[in-house]
Amino acid sequence: MLTNTEILTEYFKCADNPIYAITTYLETKDLTQGGFVPFLLFPRQKEIIRAYEKHRFNLVTKPRQAGISTTTQAYMAIKGAFADEGSPETILVIANKLKLAQKFVKGIKDYLNQLPRWVWGEDYYGSVENEKKSIFVVDSKIEIELPNGTQIIAVATSEDALRGYTPTYLVFDEAAFIDNGDAVYAAAMSSCATGGRVMLISTPNGMDPLYYKTYEQSKIKIKGKGNEYNIIEMRWFEDPRYNGKNDGTGLFWIKKDESGEEVERIREVEYLDSGYSKKLKEGYKPTSDWYEGMCGTLNHNSRKIAQELDVSFLGSGGNVIKDVDIAFHEENNVCEPEWTDGVESEFWMWEKPVDGHRYIMGVDVARGDGKDASTMVIINTTTMEQVMEYQGKVQPDILAEYVYEYGNLYKAYTVVDIAGGMGVSTVLKLIELDYKYLHYEEPKGKILNSKKNQLTTYSKDEKMPGFNANGVRTSMITHLEYMIRSNGVKIKSRRTTSEMKTFIYKNGRPDHMEGYHDDLLMAFGMPLWVLEYSFKKLEKVKSQTKAILSSWKVGGSSTSDESGGFVPKKLRNKKALPGPKFDKNISKNMQDPTGANAWLFSGLR
What we know:
By secondary structure, this protein is of the alpha/beta class. It has 21 helices and 23 strands. It folds into four domains: about 5-235, P-loop containing nucleotide triphosphate hydrolases (Rossmann fold); about 235-315, no CATH class; about 330-535, 2-Layer Sandwich (Nucleotidyltransferase, domain 5); about 545-605, no CATH class. About 35% of the residues lie in helices and about 15% in strands.
């Protein structure tokens, strides 16, 4: 039996260090060892507890059987048991079903029962009679209360279930599976307004409205955007029970070719996080005997494996852009913008205009008062890197002013979508502003706007200002996917990669998931399509037009002899000097090579 001095010392040691308390006094069930064993936290579990201590908001992504829920239950048991009587904890647990929340609370209760009796004070320790007393003042499936006043409560997933509570800890277990999760979360957060801590724990469940959205928003570290969540990403191969380190079977890293054939296999020797990250970036994928066995348990269902083992957010309808391609851009290209502008940081810029470089802009126009946002994307066609992005809700004519400002800044050839009708107003406003860099094309497809006939007033050589994306939507998205997959364009924006993750096939047609958007992707797709099919096709006839191509000047305004004898269009005798004879399929889509945007040709590779 400990002396009072020893009890006091031990009590404060546990209260100050939850990791010490867990590893010293608790046991946990370990199926890999056939029963209860001392709760010896492995490094990543310790990291999670440190994060709980340091950050008010935490989101944990976890694979199946990672022991994160049990680690959180143990942590909550320690925080509840060692809380001061003057400020007891109120711990609320929310899960997809009340029974699951009750099960989580029972797990906390089981750990509380393992703690030494002296934790509860002299009324519960020191004699046979005292030690027979229940440590629970309230004891039910839904709620338990401890002698120090701490309450631990299982809560139903309804918007008014938390009414009357002021939690100090709010735990969402399997948060991705909570029905109507965003509404439940909003109601729960209002109860934490005075300073409660929040933990979201789950395996992924596609792009759900709570867990996934919170995860994605946490990645945006820009003033006025994102959220305060600290992300802890637990991966199966960081667990020594599963990576072959404990039993000697080993962890292996494999690399496959495009056909899926294994071309290299490396045995792990260091078992360090830094080494894991390096191998992942180099394109290796981890495997072990445990992992292969779990894949078999899941019937080798690729979607289930990605969610429950690889901790990957996958759309339920099948992603248009593969996870591996999104991950490549996030790891190698995505970065925070160098400059932001706007009341809500709607404008992001990564690069100022560079002399000698060429730029192209895509503009997707929305009403300005609905769910969709208007977007602008500018690409440096010399380096094929994204340099600027806008996403916001403004009226089409106001958007035109933004396009005018940034288009002139970069001298960016500008492709505005007019298919939905909103872009017509933007184009007309740009013409009113005497904007020099508008894309023109032959009229095709239906345009939903009463002002569409006005566009024909501004036609040039039977080409109308604007771009009708509906006419080429499927092909345009196919080309966009290829450019992303091949790193043909470098995506810098996390807002854009976020849209990729919710861009799926619906009945065979590429579209965004319910509640999500694809505005930035469309703004990317249009200029890439125009680059490929209105300009780059010129390479096919480069040999027969080389002299003419080399003579074109920016704006087509040169009248000096520098042009090598090439006369500007307005001074040309058309009968004496006919234009170059391009292939009819090319000339159908391309712009007037002597016009204001001729510089684009020389900038493409």
